[in-house]
Each structure stands twice: as structure tokens, then as C-alpha cells.
Design goal:
Number of domains: 2
Oligomer: single chain
Shape: elongated
Number of helices: 8
Structural class: alpha/beta
Radius of gyration: 30 Å
Length: about 350
């Protein structure tokens, strides 16, 4: 109940508050002088006295006073300064990126996820991933395309350059590529806001729903040792269950299969804070596996939503982790048919052999 109340309160406050409060206040200050001028023009008082009084009349008017002008001028200067300061701190300091390298996926950024007032202050969207036309995805060509994006440091040079403060990041691609694109985010200093494609509504949404406290089922975590060749695996089944029979034969006895503490769902995690916690849990398991004696490579079999795959990739640390081999599941063969090996130099395509 506390989580529900907290989410309702945060959501209500987010809807109520202005994303640019200084601009709102500044605009009101600039408009007040016009109201004051109307008030001043209406103040014109004349008091008349009897004939035997030394003074015939007294007239008081603000129309001839310089006070209204100075007050109006000060209000307008203060208002203009507030507007300028808010524009300076927010103008085009928000970037947006969409990954689109699957068939029949739009390469247009979903602007509907942005606040209406924020749309005017965003930089032009950037699309990552090679366009896929027809049914042939050309995985090897996509691999070369990704390595080229990594080599030119596309995010730092063309997306978050010049003091970017916020980055909207999401999209659709095969799981190995999503993990690899997450690796590109690891050194960014701006705030990263994920958005995901929700299958039930077929719409893009931010992860700002209630925190359902999703986490790994710790009762399933058991001791797993690397194979004689130094391979160890981790399978995470959040979107669909992963069966041992689906894994490559050499890794079946050397792969830890873990699910969540809740039921299977294509978009299981709907809250970004929850997603970060789960990603941290997974990273700790990978740390443990990577430091097992004799480990040379960590194999990942991930059935998770796109944003979790991206954030897992963000945790890869060269020099700390052994190379990751991220496998792609093919429903047609009910097996993992290819993989990408992630290292600090990029990704390498591997055709799986059972």
C-alpha cells in the first residue's frame, strides 16, 4: 500500500508542477506591469472644499508619478531574467535516441512520451542501428555497423556533447545488440531516462509506473562452475521461461538459470528505479561468475524486456569482467543460433554450435 500511495503522490506532483517554473514566474512578472498600468490610470482623485476654505480642491493622481514606471520596469527586468536563466539551463540540453534495427520497426522517435512543454527544448533525435528491410536482418553487417558506431564514439560526439543534462534512450533490436548498445552508455554523465515498447498497448512508454519490487528469485541461485574450456553461463527468464534443453549442450551443466520473484511478463518491470535495482542484482551474479577460478568467458541467455537488456549492457566493465557472449534465441529452431561476443573493442559475431 505504501508503494501505491507513493507512486500516486509522485505522479500527481509531476502532473501539477511546471517543468520550467522560472519561465512561468517570469512570464507573470512581465505581464503584471500591464495590469498595474491599468490600475494606475484609474487612480485620479479630486477633493473639493467649501467656498470659505483656504483651498478650493486637492487632486491626487498616479498618472503624473514616475513610481509606476519604475515599478513596471523592475518587474519586467526581473521577469525577463528569470525566463532567460531557465531557457539557458534547459534549452536543447535534452537528447533523445532510439535504437531501430529490426524488421517493420519505425525509426521515428516517439515524441508522445515527452512532456508537451519539453518537446520544444529537445535536440534532434538520433537513430542507432542499421535499417532492416525485408526479412533478412544481415546480422554480420549489423555487427560491423555497431562497431563503426562504437569506434566513432557516436554518443559522446553527436548526442550528449555540449553539456547534455538528460538523455531519453530506448528502442528495439535483438537482445545481443541491445546489451551492446547499453555498453555505450557506461561513461555518460547525464541523466538517462529509459522508454520501452509495451506489447499489450503496442505503444512506447516511460518506466514511471508503480514499483512492483521485482527482483531475482534468490532461491534459484546455486553454485555453478565453469566448464573445462572456461565457459560459464547465466540465463535470466523474465519475459519467457528458459529451459535447460534450449541451451547449447556444452553449457547445460554450467549455466545458472534464474527467474524473477513474480510471474512471467513481456514487460515485467514498469518502474525505472526497480529496473536499476534488478540490473544491479544481475551484475553482482555476473561478477561472481566472472571471478570463478578457470572462467574465461561469461555466456548470457536473456529473455528480458529491451530496457533491462540495455541496462545490463551498461554494467559491462572491461578489465573486471571476462568477455561476455550474449546469445540470441531463435523461436523457429527453439535454440540459440548465434551470439555476439562483447569486449572493449566492440562485438564479434559467433555462429552457435550445439
Amino acid at each position: 500500500m505504501w508503494e501505491k500511495f507513493k507512486w500516486l503522490w509522485i505522479t500527481a506532483w509531476r502532473l501539477k508542477k511546471s517543468p520550467y517554473p522560472k519561465i512561468s514566474i517570469g512570464a507573470k512578472l512581465c505581464l503584471w506591469p500591464f495590469s498595474l498600468s491599468m490600475l494606475y490610470s484609474a487612480i485620479d482623485v479630486t477633493i473639493s472644499f467649501n467656498a470659505d476654505f483656504p483651498v478650493d480642491s486637492i487632486r491626487a493622481s498616479l498618472q503624473d508619478s514616475s513610481t509606476p514606471f519604475y515599478a513596471s520596469f523592475v518587474l519586467m527586468v526581473v521577469g525577463a531574467f528569470l525566463i532567460y536563466s531557465d531557457l539557458k539551463s534547459n534549452l536543447r540540453h535534452t537528447s533523445k535516441v532510439i535504437i531501430a534495427s529490426m524488421p517493420r520497426i519505425s525509426r521515428e522517435f516517439p515524441d508522445e512520451i515527452l512532456d508537451s512543454s519539453e518537446k520544444e527544448f529537445c535536440r534532434e533525435s538520433v537513430v542507432l542501428g542499421q535499417s532492416v528491410s525485408g526479412g533478412d536482418e544481415h546480422i554480420e553487417r549489423q555487427t560491423k555497423f555497431y562497431n563503426a558506431e562504437l569506434l566513432v564514439d557516436i554518443l559522446n560526439r553527436f548526442v550528449v556533447q555540449e553539456d547534455c543534462k538528460k538523455l531519453y534512450f530506448g528502442g528495439l533490436a535483438r537482445i545481443p545488440f541491445l546489451v551492446a548498445y547499453g555498453y555505450m552508455l557506461k561513461n555518460l554523465k547525464c541523466a538517462i531516462i529509459y522508454f520501452d515498447k509495451f506489447h499489450k498497448s503496442s505503444s512506447w512508454q516511460l518506466l514511471d509506473d508503480e514499483d512492483l519490487k521485482v527482483k531475482l528469485d534468490s532461491s534459484e541461485i546455486i553454485e555453478i562452475q565453469p566448464s573445462p574450456s572456461g565457459d560459464v553461463g547465466l540465463a535470466i527468464g523474465f519475459s519467457t521461461r528458459i529451459n535447460q534443453e534450449q541451451l547449447p549442450i556444452p553449457l547445460r551443466e554450467h549455466t545458472l538459470i534464474v527467474s524473477s520473484n513474480q510471474s512471467i511478463d513481456r514487460n515485467l518491470i514498469k518502474n525505472q528505479e526497480n529496473l536499476i535495482r534488478v540490473s544491479n542484482e544481475i551484475c553482482k551474479v555476473i561478477d561472481e561468475l566472472s571471478h570463478r577460478e578457470g572462467c574465461k568467458k561469461v555466456h548470457l541467455f536473456l529473455s528480458v524486456q529491451s530496457t533491462l537488456a540495455i541496462d545490463i549492457g551498461r554494467r559491462y566493465q572491461e578489465g573486471v569482467h571476462k568477455n561476455w557472449v550474449i546469445h540470441n534465441f531463435s523461436p523457429e529452431s527453439d535454440s540459440y543460433s548465434w551470439a555476439l561476443e562483447l569486449s572493449k573493442t566492440g562485438v564479434e559475431y559467433i555462429e552457435a554450435s550445439n
